[in-house]
Specification:
Length: 169
């Protein structure tokens, strides 16, 4: 699946990047489902100095057809059935901060990385349709895409010693 990314090193600590990628997922064996197709755009910046990394990215995911899946984890019945979700546009911003609390190189190669990331996402249907997925019913253009939280936060902490690695998130 094609994609292109460009990165520019602004100075020894900062980079700026941009990417455009095509997304695709096969429709599966269920009759009537179409493949998932999208064009995904990102623009971001990274700053890294020593044990610190900061990153900010804005993104846009433009789906010509999003495939939905009936999952219990998403509030469905858990059948795993695929269904067409139509045109969906998702955009937002993500921030990430990572650092290594204790980094020791040499004979005692160990580190304690920690990080936090926050993502804000807005996702809306771009077309109106009658969904075969009972929980959705009639979808109108402009409706929020369900089961995708607007705010997501992730925490990471780890310990690394030589070839041994333990991470929790």
């Amino acid at each position: 699946i094609p994609g292109i990314g460009v990165q520019y090193q602004a100075n020894k600590f900062s980079t700026v990047f941009i990417g455009i990628h095509k997304g695709f997922a096969p429709p599966g064996a269920q009759a009537g489902t179409l493949p998932e197709e999208s064009i995904n755009y990102e623009l971001g910046s990274r700053w890294q100095k020593g044990v610190f990394l900061l990153q900010a990215v804005i993104f846009l995911n433009d789906y010509s057809n999003l495939l939905g899946t009936d999952l219990a984890a998403g509030g469905g019945t858990g059948t795993g059935d695929l269904f067409n979700a139509g045109e969906v546009r998702s955009h937002g911003i993500e921030f990430q901060i990572n650092c290594d609390l204790i980094s020791q190189k040499g004979a005692h190669n160990y580190s304690v990385p920690v990080g936090i990331s926050y993502t804000y996402t807005v996702a809306r249907f771009q077309s109106s349709f009658k969904s075969i997925y009972e929980d959705w019913g009639s979808v109108e253009k402009g409706d929020h895409f369900p089961y995708l939280p607007a705010h997501q936060i992730s925490l990471l902490a780890g310990f690394r010693y030589g070839a041994f690695r333990f991470d929790a998130s």
